[in-house]
Automatic annotation (TrEMBL):
Residues 78-90 have a biased composition (Polar residues). Signal peptide: none annotated. Residues 98-109 have a biased composition (Basic and acidic residues). The lineage of its organism: Eukaryota, Fungi, Dikarya, Ascomycota, Pezizomycotina. It comes from Lepraria neglecta. Residues 75-142 are annotated as: Disordered. Pfam families: DUF2196 (PF09962). InterPro entries: DUF2196 (IPR019240). This is Uncharacterized protein.
Length: 178
């Protein structure tokens, strides 16, 4: 018999599993998944933690797992039709969550929303040194040096210009390299 695949399992699904202590006898334990512990499919079964805390490998899906999952979900769906629902602390794990509206049931699609709505324009106040006049001069100087030394990479010329404040010193270093 083939064990269930990872795609078939999720928290709340009823399963039959073998506990570590019961591996020799093959005794099956039934329960509902609270947490999946294995990252992918496994030939001996995916390791899970049940809602009662027991850990073992899933051998098959419980026959009533679908009915149990529907029964458990229905009160949440009915209670949260137009309001947020907070899970009761008696639920295993005591996690809190809120149900939100399903975007697929929204009659009007949000056509006005685009990626451009989430992009912020860069602020100019983040600059520490207002060097707007020095950048074009260096760019022009770099362009001249690139024409004078065509065998050298432009990134190398830019790095040498950054290291030497005097253009003549940079020109001397570049002439040694070419």
């Amino acid at each position: 018999m083939a064990v269930p695949k990872m795609s078939q399992l999720r928290p709340g699904v009823g399963v039959n599993m073998i506990l570590k202590a019961d591996q020799r006898s093959g005794k099956l334990t039934t329960g509902q998944i609270s947490e999946i512990l294995t990252r992918g499919d496994h030939p001996r079964g995916i390791k899970v933690r049940l809602s009662n805390g027991q850990v073992g490998r899933v051998q098959s899906l419980s026959a009533s797992s679908d009915q149990q999952a529907i029964t458990q979900i229905m009160p949440y769906v009915q209670a949260s039709s137009d309001e947020n629902y907070e899970q009761s602390p008696s639920h295993p794990g005591g996690r809190k969550f809120t149900l939100q509206e399903d975007y697929r049931q929204d009659p009007t699609p949000h056509e006005s929303t685009s990626l451009a709505d989430y992009i912020r324009a860069p602020s100019s106040s983040k600059r520490k040194h207002p060097s707007s006049s020095s950048t074009p001069v260096k760019d022009t100087t770099q362009a001249i040096l690139e024409k004078n030394f065509p065998d050298l990479d432009s990134a190398l010329i830019a790095a040498i210009l950054a290291d030497h404040e005097n253009v003549e010193d940079a020109r001397g270093v570049l002439s040694l390299l070419s």
